[in-house]
Amino acid sequence: MFLLKKIHKWLSILVGLQLLIWLSTGLFFNLMDHQKTSGEKFSQRPAIAEVNENNLVEPQSVLLKSKPTVSLTQISLLEHPYYLLTHDRSLYSHFNNNYSLVDAYSGREVIIDEVMASELAQASYKGKAGISSVIKMSPPYDDIPREQNNVWQINYADEVNTSVYIDAGSGRVVKHSNDDKRFADIFFMLHFMDYGVEGSFNNIQIIIFAIFTFFFALTGFIWTIELGINGQYKVNFGIKKRKLLLFDMNQQPMGEFEVTTKSSLLDELIEHDIALSSTCGGGGSCGQCKIRCDKKTKITSTEHVHFTDEQLQQGYRLACQHDATEIEKLTLVDVTQAKKHTLELTNSEFISPYIKELRFKIIGGYNLTFKAGAHIRFYIPPAKGVSIPMRLPDAFKRHWHDTEHLEYEHKACSRSYSLANGNGQIEGGANELIFTIKIQNSPNKSVLPGVGSNYLCNLGLGQTIEAVGPFERFYAKPPSNKTMMLIGAGSGIAPLRSLIEEQLNQTDKGRHTNRDIYFFYGARSETDLLYKDEFFKLSKRHPHFHYYPVLSRPPNGWSGAKGYVQDLLKLHINSIYQIENVEFYLCGPNNMMSATINLLKTNNVNAKNIAFDEFT
User: Fold this and answer.
1) Membrane spanning segments where (predicted)?
2) Among 318, 450, 562, 591, which has the highest number of CB atoms less than 10 A from its own CB?
């Protein structure tokens, strides 16, 4: 089922992209000037010859002199009668045909040369421009992709660059084309998926697309059935309440709790100050909100990914995938003693074109204790949003020029973000919570921007929001003499900065040894190097802290490392002495994470020495 979902998602991109192309090109066809884009702006019907039948050569005599002929037709070219002899006939005139042309008065065979082709083109052209060039061509042709016969191309020096195409065998005017038609042909090519420029919608591309669309519909249908079987589609008439019996991790009863059927168990438990860890906002992708319940409880496809068959048989499930209508009693597996907080925004500042530093104070005046690397789950209320941030500094506006302005509404949800300060275990905890949040923009109108990041980064000073936590799943190992190596990129700097602050503060207070700390941080440009000055100052103040920034798009004059952060690590990793005595801490985009983890595994780094905070 996991593979089927993958196929469905990738096919949705392909099918959705082509649907957008169909819609946009179809709109163009409705709005365009059909007469203008026909290519016939200077086209006219050539004059027909007045035939003196008494002077015509007997057709039988012409046939006797020619090679085997399928048909003989009298035609008019340049106001003169000709016999057109067809020796090999195809179904359509644009298919490959074999002709001979004979003067109907003299019986002499005529070959259409450059001069005659020019005269034939001129007879069908009513413009005033002169001929710029005459070229004899063989298929294929850009302007007339379906034509399979040799043609003469007569080009005119008019304002639309008209070209007239004359069949080199029959003298037939194949087509007039110009720049207006060529522009429209691009949209026809996109609309009919004629990417091979065959001049036909009956092509291999559209056949393959039809097959892909069939499998897209089939996988979606199978997925829908699977969701229905697993009870993912429910119709609740009103909000119902019921009692839920809870047991702790030691199988000891915790009592009955009243829950509603409107939300998932993940959200309902938090109403009773029972916080299950979740970094994906209840989407099922992180697999952290584990519970145990009746083994007969339906299993979702997401749970097949995160649990073994043995665990599923033991009743392991994800709280975000079920509600109180399915479960009467459950056992908590991994509970963090976290509670709800009301946070007030005290400072909101852009520290790069797409990343803001947000600072919150805790309403109530108490401090929060946490390990560096912990995250907080924010409850995003339903609201209206915009795709371009409000209060955007002038210096960063150019970075958002290509983002289309979009106003939208979103439903309530939850999102998790790592804390960027590491003073939660120092001097009684922290009252100020710091976050570095990347504003996820929208690639197009069909996809909403990041709901959580846009809502939080558009909050005004003094506004409040509900949150729960902290959740500690990514943190430094107990103090030791092992070297710490931190690798990050983008907004993944938040938990790594927290770890660095915690370690250096503990060192200042004499609680840690001065073990080496290496920080490799990747960004696109120098503008995107978050807290650069702060880290350089720390490296001067603490000789055991080493800062290595790397840019993938460095400016002229940049003297630091260039490329991607994982490539910089690759250059240094072979020089690491006793790699088994190094702890690696990673946080950043998926590509960086997977490449770095593969690099560490290739160099035989023990998995116990690798900690990472995933973007989910």
Assistant:
1) 12-32, 206-225
2) 318
Distance from C-alpha of 581 to C-alpha of 500, rounded to nearest angstrom: 18
Residue at a domain's end among 446, 471, 496: 471
Q: Are 194 and 210 in contact (CB under 8 A)?
A: no
> What is the pTM (predicted TM-score) of this model?
0.56
> Which residue type, as a one-letter code, is found at position 329?
K
* In a shared domain, residues 419 and 458: yes
- For position 541, what pLDDT does the model report? 92
Q: Do 380 and 415 touch, CB atoms closer than 8 A?
A: yes
The pLDDT mean for the chain works out to: 87
My answer on whether 312 and 220 are in the same domain is no
Residues 327 and 354 in one domain: no
- In DSSP terms, 550 is beta-bridged to 522, 561
pLDDT (mean) for 564-571: 89
Q: What is the pLDDT of residues 95-127, one digit of tens each?
A: 999 999 999 999 999 999 999 999 999 999 999
- Host domain of residue 508: 483-613
Interval 171-203: pLDDT, tens = 999 999 999 999 999 998 888 888 877 777 778
| Structural domain includes residue 417 | yes
Same domain, 506 and 580: yes
- Classify residue 60: in a domain, yes or no: yes
The answer to whether residues 528 and 454 belong to one domain is no
Long-range CB contacts for residues 217-223, cutoff 8 Å, separation at least 24: 219/4, 219/5, 219/7, 219/8, 219/11, 220/8, 222/4, 223/1, 223/4, 223/5, 223/8, 223/301
Res 42 pLDDT > 60: yes
Pair (383, 504) in one structural domain: no
Of residues 344 and 571, more confidently modeled: 344
Examine residue 192 and state whether it is found in any structural domain, yes or no.
no
Joined tokens for residue 203: 């092509």
Contact 584, 607 (CB under 8 A): no
| Range 483-492 average pLDDT | 91
Give the CATH number for residue 525.
3.40.50.80
Under a CB-based contact definition with an 8 Å cutoff, are residues 417 and 437 in contact? yes
Query: Of residues 514 and 220, which shows the higher confidence score?
Result: 220
Q: How would DSSP label each residue in 241-259?
A: EEEEEEE-TTS-EEEEEEE
**Does residue 475 carry a pLDDT above 60?**
yes
Are both 97 and 57 inside the same structural domain? yes
For residue 184, being part of any structural domain is answered with no
